[in-house]
Amino acid sequence: MRLSRAWPAALLLVLVASPFFSFNPFYQRVAALVALAAISASAWNVIGGYAGQVSFGHSVYFGVGAYAALLVFTKLGLPPIAGAPLGILASLAISVIAGLPTFRLHGHYFSMATFAIAALAELLIINWNFAGGAIGMMGPATARSPADLLFRSALPYYAIFLAVLAVLLWLTHRMQRSRMGFYLRAIGAGERAAQSLGVPIRRYKLYALLLSGAFTALAGSLYAVMIGFIDPDSGFGVLISVNMVVMAALGGAGTLFGPLVGAVILVPLSEASNAILGGGSSGAAYVAYGVIIMLIARFCPGGLAEWWRVLTRTRRRRAA
Amino acid sequence: MILLQLITDGLLLGAVYALFSSGLTLIWGMMNVINFAHGDFVMLAMYVAFFAFTLLKLGPAVFVPLAAIVLFGFGVLVYAGLVRYVMRGPMLAQIISTFGLALVMQYTALWVFSANFVSLPNTLVGGVYDVGGIRVSAARLLAGATALALTLGMHLLLTRTDLGSRMLAVSEDRVAAALVGIRPDPMQALAWGLGAASTGVAGALIALFFYVSPGVGDAFTLIAFVTVCLGGFGSVPGALLAGLAIGVIESLSAYWLGPAIKDIAVYGLFVAVLWVRPQGLLGRA
Amino acid sequence: MAITRRSVIALPVLAAMPVRAFAAEPVKIGYIEALTGNAAAAGQSIKQAAELATEIINNPHPELAPLTLATKTGGLTNLGGAKVEIAWADNQGSPAVAQSDALRLITQDHVVALTGAYQSSCTLTSSAVAERYGIPYLAGESAAANLTERGYKWFFRTTPYGPDFARLYLDFLAAVAKTGMATSKIAVVHENTDYGTSVADSMVQTAAARGIKVAQRIAYNANGTDVSPQVLELKNGKPDVVIFISYTSDSILYLKTMKTLGFRPPIVIGDDSGFSDPSFVKSVGPIAQGALNRSAFVPGKPDSLTYKINALFKKKTGRDMDDTTARSMQGFLVLCDAINRAGSTKPEAIRDALVKTDLPASALMINYKGVKFNAQGQNTLAYSLMIQLQGDRYVPVWPTEAASAKLELPFKGWS
User: Fold this and answer.
1) Contacts for C396-400: CB closer than 8 Å, 24+ residues apart
2) What is the number of structural domains in chain B?
3) What is the pLDDT of residues B26-78, one digit of tens each?
4) Residues of C in Cβ contact (< 8 Å) with A142
5) Which CATH code is given to the segment(s) C163-295+386-402?
6) Subunits close to C (at least 3 CB pairs below 8 A)
7) Is the ipTM of this complex over 0.95?
8) Residue B151 is part of which domain span?
9) Which of A50-59, B94-103, B111-120 bottoms out in mean pLDDT, i.e. has the lowest?
10) Which CATH class is domain C2-160+301-371?
């Protein structure tokens, strides 16, 4: 058993460190994008995976974070990253104002409501001319100071994203073993049963959402810092939420490393398919993406984590 | 006069909303599954109508039923190949499965039909009626009338026939239904087929006055959600009422508040209703 | 390997070609375009135009002289007859993907210059990468005003943009007013993403600068299912002129709804994109008779360059070339011409050549007055004509010296 844990850990370490030893800028950028996607997918996982509340509205948090970053730049002339705390504050407010009433809904109703809230948010942003309306906002064109975090290489971004991801995963790990983790899993398994066990359902769902939303907003701010441009679709578009859900589902929702594994697989896949098929694809990459989603849902609804568990269990049995 | 025209337009639009939402609500009511690919079912039906006309020179009297048949088959296929396995799995798998289906449908359409916008000729069901200054296009009137008739028919099927009560029995309790000798699988496949078929009729009728493109379904998916939610999940008359109401609200708010605001009004209403009355306006608590 | 590839390319033209140096490496240019996503229809059409341009550059086309790079030998003559090669990247209509594309093309494919994209938001992010790497970026079709307001060193744009269009419409309306038609009450109807909003803003500002107040301004969501309320609002306002800044789907809906509601303003102008889409003409052409549009590309007389290019494009695709594809193709040709004049694939040399660009109208395959960049990198000689839908095609109607058909007003629509 020790062996079966050791080699994936070693593999992970090599993977994580590899961009630092690569001289390929595109590889480094893909690594940074993987880390960024893993942050938002892991953040989604707290409420969507552990607590089983399948939100399709997390693009709201992402967008709020991204917009906060570029708003402080365009309106106040501050470095974009200075907007991150504001984005997090806004995300906490949204969790309370929009999250609490939505928690009355269960299952599909909850998903549909979050979907609609995200659509509503995108429409509001399109009509909010102060924040660039439909045209969006640009980040600094050239770095005015190191605080603008404008690098030609993607490596510094990778390092920053990795650090944030590590903090998030550490928090999630701690949570998993705490009373909160137990409560959330109970809620995810069935709210009625959890209630009868005396779990304060609404309170813990809110805690999970606060944590989840804050890190998603941070991911949004980091996105805006790196990309240097935000418009309603790239901040609040429905595909942003979908990507978080699918990454978590692929790797294994409600597991610590599941969303990260999902991101490690899906982001390079989409970048590579675009690089290879790019010209002639006509959407072949999306068809493949859709097929992958259906295959997960049909054959391994617990994500790759479930397969992994089955795999290690048989090996353990054989070893014993 | 403007007000009457706005309300007329809203009602006609709403009838169509009701029609393509009734398929969604039926599927939802029968098996607690949301079809996120619903708008793409509408898109598929529109292409069936378009190609039936351009390639085979078939008129609406033929291509509307044809779209219903094709979509019925497609609905059964989706049930048998995907939904049947997914619906007993975890919630997350249920929800993402139809999302995947939506992506596959939309981008396969892009690949096969190309991204170009197409549209049926305006003269197919041409003509505009002028009733005391209120102008109504024949195509929209036809779509609206068929929508009303079909929604009513579906309601009667569910509530007044033996088949309908069997389907409802399965949706109430699979196990109990199986115990009294109703096999649940064919009933649920039938529900998917019927839901898809009514979507097919809707799509073919909408194609008479709308453009067709691979991405056209996106415009409909959210509206269908709103309609189903307002009307109460699973309630066909509720969908009709909600569809009409949404049509009128859109029409009036677009005129008075501006077209960019109308969607905000509709989605805002949707979210508010979900928060205040989660079972929908006519839904069972 | 290099030899075999070259001989394969060379084979079809070998017979027509005198012996020449085969030494040159192909010149690789990165093209970032929306090949999937919302704008895929436009993107795919642009791709075909770029392929046609590459074919013209790489093969002998003396019959197309004096078009730039239409040579007797083919290839970039100052680079030893090097072929031009396009590295395609699909931006999927997403600004973030466009940025990844730019980075990949620069660092992996080692392209010497970049061009694209239909959506201004994608051009915005991808050109920022080019700026950081010091690689020339030429935008042939993105029209958002802010692109050339960033003070970039490596960014150039050949296409006319918002203020150019607004001036064209106002000049045209002023000319029409002289014939006695009322043109003072202008309604602007625009879709509410970056394209519609920015052009509408330019329209309102340019009009205000001339002391004209836009009477109605209606923003709407292009993905909507119904446009009746907007049409009723217009009908109520009784404007003399309605300017639609719309994509394809909504343009089609507008015309259908205008017919249903019996709204026929005296002058209807569609700002390119939606109204120029061949699908628009095919689906609602019969009820949009007399609709005006702008275009920088008019095929013109059979011996003209524009006509010949259109014929080649039609042979390749079965469709007429439209404004967007022509603007993108011209942009690509200007970029290749600069590389050829630079005689080098070094970024600085290409940039210098772009700065010095001074192409006369006769060397272009489009109806610009020439190509010459100002300090911001904007082409100061970009130009468009007014065209009108008559029958199943658009014909140039204004300014009169370029017109091939008579301007027919008021707007007929259906009937």
Assistant:
1) C396/C295, C396/C298, C396/C300, C397/C292, C398/C172, C398/C175, C399/C175
2) 1
3) 888 777 778 889 999 999 999 999 999 999 988 888 999 999 999 999 999 99
4) 131
5) 3.40.50.2300
6) A, B
7) no
8) 2-276
9) B111-120
10) alpha beta
